[in-house]
Amino acid sequence: MTHIRAPHLPEPAIRARARDGTAAIFPGIDGYGHTLFGAAPGADAGDLDLARIVPPVFVPQRLEKMFELGREPLYGDVDLRSSIGGFAAPLPVFLCAFGSTQVAGGQLGVAASEQAARLGIPMVIGENVVPMHGYGRLADAAEHGLIGRIRAYAHAVPDGVGGVVVQQSTEDADAEVWNLVYSDPFATMLLESGRLAFELKVGQGAKPGLGGMTVLTRAAAASVSEQYTVDDPFGPDEAMVLRSSSPGTFTEEILRQQIRLMRNNYPRARVWVKLHPGRDVGHAAQVAWSAGADAVTVDGAEGGTGWAPSVFLDQVGLPLAECLRRIGKHSDGAAALLASGRIWEGARALKCLAMGATAVGLGRAALLAVSEDATDGLVRLVRCLELELRLLLSALGKYHVSALTADDLWFPDHDHGSREEHGNDQL
What we know:
With 427 residues, the protein is α/β, with parallel strands linked by helices. It contains 17 helices and 15 strands.
């Protein structure tokens, strides 16, 4: 082979494509089933991680709290109780959508459901579970089916808090997933207590503009080939193939009509909408809210647990901070803006809340925690985040998450954070 130097090009990647063909545009297939995909740690996540949380010198809200309590306030006096898309929660956190992928399936998905219930936080069940694994009415299929997760959650959640959100994609609609759930006895308790929601999936952070993707054995793919597109980018000698679902087609009017249909057909269920980090995400969120959505979830480009071409994971979609900036703080306090994308600790969560989010979602971090300890891993992870939030809010001299504003953040370029110091310069 003739050696050619290409100092300004990624030579290993080019050679891999020349050698392996279309298999090279995806993450390594050997990790599928026990690896969480999404934007790589080195990928540009925007400026959310660069922002600093900046406590003020003067803290008038602390003085108000001191008069209320009759003593100096402490971090334990911070109130984290939240309303998340119509559900009461002890803190502004929810469990993100886990779909039909191997890594979230079986006992791992059920364990995450049970722990989220014990915490009293809402849980989203992701797309394609029913088309891939069935609904789960049969005992031997329950742990892989959708009903297994609902049952685990319903049995463990305390009264008055939490809720289950069932996501639907194009293929789920064909399988009539929402009809099945709405009439199921296991969901009755949640429905009657106002703790059931349906989420219309418009897109997701890991692959904006694409439908769900997963890797299956050839036999498994053959069994669902009428519902999904099955492709063979990894070569004829590879045991696995690619299964893709449709991205769905949306316009402003289609989104409005979908939400109206959800309201009319399932009047006792809350309505959530999930958006991908598109350039018109702000406008899309306003359309969803104006049509009656109780919550809009936006996945930043750094979010998502799913399988996708590397170019999507690394280079497609807006970072979460820019999504929040384009949406802004929603004026209707009854409707929620939910944010997800590499949330795992209190500082990143607080930054999202300060930029207008009502609550933040745990995705990959939750799965990692549950895989570490299927009994209490997620509970411990959330307790760490909860304590950090209390400490940070107390340091800011604020005692409820709704008091957070963009003034609590400083960005290195000085363009997006507080204007307070610039105003002081003019005094």
